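Priority: medium. Attachment 1 of 2:
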């Protein structure tokens, strides 16, 4: 499935996520690294977002992931900041350290530098913390320049959340 990620498509995704969250009486928190707050910005662009958006945490550094989200240093050291283990811990930490009951997280290598043979530029890990202590993760390898990787990351994060809320 191809996910559109132009401004109009992103706004439609956010509106759909907002409707699902409001329908189910849920609050969302975000824990972002490579997206630098872009997801939270789109959430708060929507009027009335305080009814479903609780907070956004930009945890770009490893220290921020540890201090603000409770990600274990040993997990960052063993698996890397860009890993499903860390993305899951980020999402879980966002729920535990907020008044939200749902969270999404992003951690990736947007480029143009920072890639490795095992984790090339465009590698992005996603986490979704859902009710009943369920945490799901995905890894995507995205293409394009830094902006394209980040924009696609935002779209995938919202689409993944919407799929989980609706389904």
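Attachment 2 of 2:
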């Amino acid at each position: 499935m191809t996910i559109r990620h132009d401004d109009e498509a992103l706004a439609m995704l956010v509106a759909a996520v907002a409707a699902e969250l409001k329908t189910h009486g849920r609050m969302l928190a975000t824990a972002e690294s490579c997206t630098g707050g872009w997801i939270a910005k789109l959430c708060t662009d929507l009027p009335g977002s305080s009814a479903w958006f609780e907070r956004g945490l930009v945890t770009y550094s490893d220290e921020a992931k540890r201090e603000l989200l409770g990600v274990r240093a040993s997990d960052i050291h063993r698996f890397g900041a860009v890993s499903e283990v860390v993305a899951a811990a980020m999402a879980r930490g966002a729920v535990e350290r907020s008044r939200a009951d749902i969270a999404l997280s992003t951690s990736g290598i947007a480029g143009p530098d920072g890639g490795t043979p095992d984790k090339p530029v465009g590698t992005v890990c996603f986490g979704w913390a859902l009710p009943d202590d369920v945490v799901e993760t995905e890894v995507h390898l995205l293409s394009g320049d830094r902006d394209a990787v980040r924009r696609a990351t935002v779209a995938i994060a919202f689409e993944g959340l919407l799929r989980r809320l609706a389904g």
